[in-house]
Amino acid sequence: MNGSRTRTQAGVNLPALRHHNATLVLDLLRAAGADGISRLELAEGTGLTPQAVSKITARLREDGLAVGAGLRPSTGGKPRTVLRLVPDAQFAVGLHLDRDGLTAVLVDLAGRPVAVTTAPLDLGAPAEQVLADAADAVRDLSAAEPHKPVLGVGVAVPGPLDHRDGVLHRVTGFPQWDGYPLRAALAERTGLPVVLDKDTNAAALALALGGAGGGDFAYLHLGTGLGAGLVLGGEVHRGARTGAGEFGHQTLQLDGPLCGCGGRGCIEALCLAAEARGDRGEAARVLGMGAANLVGLLDIDRVVLGGRTVAADEDAYVRGVRAVIEERAARGGAGAGVTVTVAGGGDRPVAEGAAQLVLAPVFGRVGERG
Amino acid sequence: MNGSRTRTQAGVNLPALRHHNATLVLDLLRAAGADGISRLELAEGTGLTPQAVSKITARLREDGLAVGAGLRPSTGGKPRTVLRLVPDAQFAVGLHLDRDGLTAVLVDLAGRPVAVTTAPLDLGAPAEQVLADAADAVRDLSAAEPHKPVLGVGVAVPGPLDHRDGVLHRVTGFPQWDGYPLRAALAERTGLPVVLDKDTNAAALALALGGAGGGDFAYLHLGTGLGAGLVLGGEVHRGARTGAGEFGHQTLQLDGPLCGCGGRGCIEALCLAAEARGDRGEAARVLGMGAANLVGLLDIDRVVLGGRTVAADEDAYVRGVRAVIEERAARGGAGAGVTVTVAGGGDRPVAEGAAQLVLAPVFGRVGERG
DNA sequence: GCACTTTGGCAACAGCGTTGCTTAAGTGGA
DNA sequence: TCCACTTAAGCAACGCTGTTGCCAAAGTGC
Hints:
The structure is a homodimer. The first copy, chain A, is an alpha/beta fold. Chain A is built from eleven helices and 15 strands. Chain A binds a DNA duplex (30 and 30 nucleotides) through helix 1 and helix 3.
């Protein structure tokens, strides 16, 4: 009669409750942005009483995380006081380690980048060398805001990895990273907390927090390969082994052409082959088929496309993917009302999303310890 | 700068905290089953202090939900007192409304069925008639435990529906159910809370709570059609419109044979066509391809097969699906360590899972209001 | 039989959000 | 100009949560 998943350590005591409600208020403050939000609106959004919100915001103001920001027009009584997040109270570093380059960004609490560094990087170099470069980037960026606390470092890398213990599994073509404990190593060098995740997950997180519209969505990244980042229930879905988002090697054509992975008819192979022979319409249609499958399976609200190959002709891909999804919806299948957009911004969203790995827990979102 | 998903009413006050911790303890008690669990083990499992657990369990005992159940062998000091859930303190009704039959089950808190009813049902009959039959079944079952409270009625139905407001969308072939507010109607007739969900989701919930092993998994139901129920992060993933689990009409063969849905190369069409022509190996292989796609995309731990078609030759399907997943894993793809099993038990798991829709919130699992 | 270990309850406590009330700060009609 | 009214937000008391410190209960083992 045993069986159900054991939930470890989910008990809530008073400090945990206090922290939870504070993160909730911070999340609403962040969502409100520069416009700010009143205490009563916070009360409505959290379900707490106005008095509880007053106490919580008083503590946040004491900590320098929130400030008053003027008054609302009166509606016949005392006007509401608007509160606003203080974005530059704390910062986080985001690191994108790619095969051929390193992008590092310092972002404030609102997720806005305040300093960016890019440098060439050889992922094939010894780990010590790469680590030193990464640590240098973190140090340089931290110097941009010398007197403000940096909460931690988020790192986005291409290959499979374990988000929980921060260990790389294997980065295709670079065997020296097999089982490398990147989180621990970088944490020791920088003296900061480090969080690790896949590049597609980081991009998806950035889109979930900074982008337009809420809801569940999939980020499909088409570059040298094809991968996905999934946001379900407002949080990045990683799976037990951080393996979720394996999208490129989904079989889309039974017994189709051979793929580099050894399989047949993989979306990635079909899509990139079509692209290679100049048939962008077919590439977009194939991608759309895969996207439509995903939309139906997970009942998501939108699909966001990104990556260099998409960037080369955004319109064609958006139109092609949208056409497939709409055709299926018109037949009575899933996908009605699903929007298809592009991420834009090149590779920088990945670094910013990496920083969000650190910021997410501050606002009660799942970053670490999914 | 707006954007992040607005979380409504997530604030936690003291009653909510109390309830949360109590459900946590209840969940551990249920997981322990007849073996029971000691206070200190509960403390370890929840992260609460032993004293807090003592207070919580005292309340549960006062409410008749838990009792002492002997002592553990001493380890050199006072022996631990074992606590056990009282399964027959409360009950729930599960209802499975299928196209041609109705299965109703009364389960105790441990999820064990204590009474079962089956009856023919014509889903094409007027709604009032079907409703009356359903309400009768609920009343008859409740009479089996006349002096114990029945917490509510969980209802599993085949078609698309909205889990949140309990409204059916359309049950293929039975237009009179379009937009029918089944939850409200049945709640009024029975005087009990009613929760509605898809049959595949109910089956998945039953497997998640009663089955062997935890972790994320997919339940694939192959009967007259092909559908899926997904359990991610220990909870049923429904999506915003309760549409998740649309698996049968995933495209698996680009421009393949026409499917009844109007699409081409759908898994369901390929699989059932192979089955129809007696090629069960191919049917299992096709199902395995779809399952492998899903395993990779979501990084799940196991695949559970069910439904009449699978039941006709469980071995062939398990072996076929397992072979595809293992082949992909052996190539370095996703799926290493994934187990493939059958649900067994025919259709009764669906009704039991429906009852779990009601029980899940008692144990802090998501049943209502995903 | 006694020292030791371990469990679990009792009582006092700090701190959470809530409630009841008061004060602050506006609007708008007479 | 005044005053009644409305709305926002703080103060103080309160109930209840889990926590802490302490002690009794109930075993083991030399």
